[in-house]
Amino acid sequence: MSVEPATVKRVAGLARIAITEDEAARLAPELGNILGWIEQLGEVDTSGVEPMTAVIPNHLRLRDDVVTDGNVRDRVLANAPQGDHGFFTVPKVIE
Amino acid sequence: MSDLTDLGVAAIRDGVRDGSFSAREVAGAFIDAVAAAKPLNAFLVETPDHAIAAAQAADDARAAGDTLRPLAGVPIGMKDLFCTQGVETTAASDILKGFVPQYESTVSGNLWAAGAGMLGKLNLDQFAMGSSNETSAFGNVVSPWRRPGDTAPLAPGGSSGGSSAAIAARLCPAATGTDTGGSIRQPAAFVGITGIKPTYGRCSRFGVVAFASSLDQAGPMARDVRDCAIMLEAMAGFDPKDATSLDLPVPAWEAGLDANLNGKRVGIPKEYRVDGMPAEIETLWQRGIDWLKDAGAEIVEVSLPHTKYALPAYYIIAPAEASSNLARYDGVRYGQRVLPEGAGLQDMYAATRAAGFGDEVKRRILIGTYVLSAGFYDAYYTQAQKVRALIARDFEQAWEQCDVLLTPTAPSAAFALGEKSADPIAMYLNDVFTVPSSLAGLPAMSVPGGLDKDGLPLGLQIIGKPLDEQGVLNAGLAIEQRAGFVARPGKWW
Amino acid sequence: MTESTYRIRGATGDWEVVIGLEVHAQITSNAKLFSGAATAFGAEPNTQVSLVDAAMPGMLPTPNRECIRQAVRTGMAIDAQINKWSRFDRKNYFYADLPQGYQISQLYHPLVGEGSIDIEVDDTTKAIGIERIHVEQDAGKLIHDQHPTRSYVDLNRSGVALMEIVSRPDMRSPAEAGAYVRKLRTILRYVGSCDGNMEEGSMRADVNVSVRRPGDEFGTRTETKNVNSVRFVMATIEYEAKRQVEVLEDGGRIVQETRLFDPDKSVTRSMRSKEDAHDYRYFPDPDLLPLELDDAFLAECRDSLPELPDAKRTRYEGDLGLSPYNAAVLTAEVETARWFEALLAECGSDVAAKSAANWLISDLYGALNRLGKSIEDSPVSPAQGAELLRLVADGTLSGTLSKQVFEIMLETGQDAGAIVEERGLKQTSDTGAIEAVIADVMAKNADKVTDYRGGKDKLFGFFVGQTMKAMGGKANPGVVNELLKKALD
Ligand SMILES: [Mg+2]
Ligand SMILES: [Zn+2]
Q1: CA-based nearest distance A45→chain C, Å
Q2: Which end of chain C has the lower number of beta carbons within 10 A, N or C?
């Protein structure tokens, strides 16, 4: 399967990974190979098959509506690369 | 008395209990071994204080006449995918450099509660993505094994390569691993040790850096089956903090060990006889069959018709989940931030993630993003989950004919570092035997079966029914007793 | 059902506006949807945040039963299909208020399927289709005005449970959209699944607007995000519809985009920051299993539903004989209905429901308006109101006197009976006393008596007034009438 460098750039953009033109050109055939390889899945007749939702039979448990957490601001912020007055901070966003 | 570092989990536990040696002595011996093994690059962080404190607690408890906890006096290694409170946890990625969790993973917490101490955090493939440990941002682990007359560094397997190397080199008697598509079993096979991935949901994923949530499962690695059983008993258990955790009691696996396989049926899946499989692997597999027969089992040929599609399905599902799981590494709340001059928020994300993630991680994020993106989702992801359902169905049908399956663990012995890193697909093919059971969430184990012509270890894999870790361990024990695997790497580091 | 005739008059003819709303309603719960952190409004930044909400490595979501329960009850309240099997999906995008890099939501298999809500505009009832209700997490908050070059991130709201209630594009005017939001809010508040507090952001709407020539296919829509009042929803539609008509009439094309409403200028503008976020790469959240509900759970949800506004209104009109207007007023807010029903219970059979309704709507509401209070903090309790109404019903108080007593109740908090007792405000039917006063009034107004007897019937009212005044308002008006007639005729 052939993947264009432009496709690589678009996908990298979606994934928020900055890549250079050179990297895109290098990655394009690499991703093309991998995608081409996984495309053999198309051969499998899956008509009438439900996609798997739970690996091992198990059902979703629901928690009681009780406050058991929070009030740990110091721990929440302990690893912040940048913060101020109890907030995380990021470059100014213009909405 | 032999070197304390030659002892396994059970021997240390029993020796501390009966006073043959103190836990402090054990901890000291392993701490020294770790400190002397820098060339292996197995440890990212050494935590001698943690190991000593746990050992002291064990010795104090014994002195006070208290009942010792199940792992009292046993120092272990912790794969650096488990978040450990107050100890840097990076998943071997630059993006988490300096990250010090304010919490403990459930599995590591269970081990500390059982009395174990931590020698340090073990190196791994970055975010557990890899089969050779070459994707670590902090340098690859080097296997303690070498080919005879050759100093070329070999891969310890991956992603739990730090764990496998450390155990094989006697730097710790046991370690935690995680297995997404074979990351416990393949490295165990590469270095001649034992490792088990339990049924999906047995071990809590809470506090384990996520790779692919529907596949990730923690498990122990150790030198023999009994030690794995002891470790797994401590690690496993229901955790309300993980919605996929199984709400079931933890069986007494160690007490249940029994190598007599009378009345058991062992399935040999014919589709695992892949093209180009080395004759040595074929031979080993046949030897495994003979051993299990000798243990009383009946051998039956079974068919798992969708085996061939397991790897491509895995390489859709795992990257898709990873692309989303790794979105949180954005430089805002923890880890590294790269902020180019004048960059806005989105540019900061892109720069941070470009600098913080290694090539393999980026490759998988891009694949995962691609297969989930508009217009491709059904063709790739939905189809892969359907194929996954078919693979699970194959196993269910096999269980009508047999109790466990026997296969080789990996298609080859350990390869040299650098040998496969240029070709991602060649690297991915390493997991061909381990991935199907991961997709189906089944318990599976690798035990050493023998050596190849270069004197490198080869592993046999036992796959069991859901929740039947005992059946897997017992078959493993039967092989272990007959294989008589005693080879160990010569110390060169 | 009549179609709306609301039209935008363009230079080239009339345009019809088509509106669909996605309302995000905060589910009333103590803890968040997937973590044990609190949800209370107005806390210090980042204090109601667990390590799960901050998306620390290895943290996992565990769902809150109450949030699921409230969404199911809401679905039942709009007669929607409840899906016993649903699933959470991840919606992936990058933003500083979204710590995980994805929102846990439901795209493919929502908890609640199709239902509908009746609205009333210009005395016409119209059913607005509901496509679905799904449960999802709220995002955190960004604060932009604290620092010249940085935005501040507060994750207190991160992970709070929301219901997204998605309507069909069934509305055709700002008035219909306004009525829809108001009705939805009423239902949520009756059910108790959302407090409906729009100022605190408990309810906000994404407003989808398109225009077309009447009868044509749907046009391209824009989505204006997070509009947080009924008035703004209507203003958004008015502005957006006009803007789109202008673009189209100028030969332009409408781009499907996300917009923002500026309440200061009453305009919408394109939201550039989210422009490239359209490929959300939804897929089932592998940290969570499918959500399967059993019959017992659903039965509890259904059994715990209160009487809903439409049913209540019908009952007020039918069983209680209230006017449609009164029934509508009394059922519009759950607190009013609750107060009214408490009042009725206290009144027992002594007071007609109609009288109680009238008193609540005119007297009590009038007083509350004056005092700037809501019915929940009314200074007069339903029991006190009932006592007052009973005194009117049994003739102890006249209408005038009752108003006087009510004023004193509001001021002092005293009970009606005590006030009547203490201040001697009892209405009198003592014929002797009344006859004496009548005689006095007639003596002082001999000329008017002559005029009355000469045929000026209208003067009867004058004598009633004079008598009542002289009695200090305490005379029973019926008795006064009777005795005056006797004396004058
Ligand atoms: Mg929306
Ligand atoms: Zn939403």
Answers
A1: 22
A2: N
- How would residue B1 be classed by pLDDT, with cut points 50, 70 and 90? very low
How far, in Å, CA of B109 to CA of B50, rounded? 13
Do C94 and B96 count as a contact with CB atoms less than 8 A apart? no
Contacts (Cβ under 8 Å, ≥6 apart) of C472: none
Q: How many CB atoms lie within 10 A of CB B341?
A: 4
The nearest alpha carbon in chain C to B91 belongs to: C57
**What whole-number distance in Å separates Cα of residue C465 and Cα of residue C16?**
59
Q: Specify whether the CB–CB gap between C171 and C151 falls below 8 A.
A: no
Range list of H helices, B326-429 = 345-356, 359-372, 377, 383-398, 424-428
Residues of B in contact with C56 (CB under 8 A): 83, 101-103, 333-334
C319: pLDDT strictly greater than 90? yes
Q: Which residues contact C486 (CB under 8 A, 6 or more apart)?
A: none
Q: DSSP of B15-42, one letter per residue? A: HHHHTSS-HHHHHHHHHHHHHT-GGG--
Ligand nearest to the CA of C163: 2
Calculate ∠ Cα A55-C106-C30, nearest 5°: 100
Mean pLDDT of B311-328: 98
The whole-number average pLDDT for the span C383-404 is 90
CB contact residues (below 8 A), chain C span 225-264, against chain A: 260
Rg (CA), chain A: 23
Q: What is the pLDDT of residue A15?
A: 97
What number of residues does chain B have? 493
Per-residue pLDDT band for C399 (boundaries 50, 70, 90) equals: confident
Q: How much is the pLDDT for C277? A: 55
Query: For the segment B53-94, what is each residue's pLDDT rounded down to a tens digit?
Result: 999 999 999 999 999 999 999 999 999 999 999 999 999 999
pTM of the model: 0.93
**What is the CA C332 to chain-centroid distance, rounded?**
6
Are B388 and A44 an interchain contact pair (Cβ–Cβ within 8 Å)? no
Q: How far is the CA of C282 from the centre of ligand 1 (A)?
A: 14
Tell if the CB–CB gap between B321 and C286 is shorter than 8 Å: yes
Helix/strand/coil for B450: strand
The answer to whether residue C379 neighbours chain B at the CB level (below 8 Å) is no
Residue C88 Cα to ligand 2 midpoint, Å, equals 13
Cβ pair C55, C100 in contact under 8 A:
yes
- Which residue in B200, B370, B390, B425 has the most chain A C-beta atoms within 10 A of its own C-beta, making it the best mutation to test that interface? B370
Please, what's the b/e burial string for C395-433 (b: 16 or more CB within 10 A of its CB; e: otherwise)?
ebbbeebbbbbbebbbeeebbbeebbeeeebbbbeeeee
**A91–C149: do the CB atoms touch at under 8 Å?**
yes
Cβ–Cβ < 8 Å for B362, B130? no
- pLDDT tens for each residue of B354-388: 999 999 999 999 999 999 999 999 999 999 999 99
Flag whether pLDDT at C272 surpasses 70.
no
Contact (Cβ atoms closer than 8 angstroms) between residue B104 and residue A83: no
Distance CA B93, CA B333 (A): 16
pLDDT tens digits, one per residue of C48-84 = 999 999 999 999 999 999 999 999 999 999 999 999 9
Cβ neighbours of residue B71 closer than 8 Å, sequence gap 6 or more: B9, B13, B111, B114, B115, B116, B230, B231, B234
Q: Which of C48, C152, C270, C272 to mutate to test the interface with A (most CBs of A within 10 A)?
A: C152
| Chain C: partners with 3+ C-beta pairs within 8 Å | A, B
**pLDDT < 50 regions, chain A:** none
pLDDT at residue B2, as a whole number: 59
User: How near does any CA of chain B get to the CA of A4, in Å?
Assistant: 13
**CA closest to C39 among chain A residues:** A67
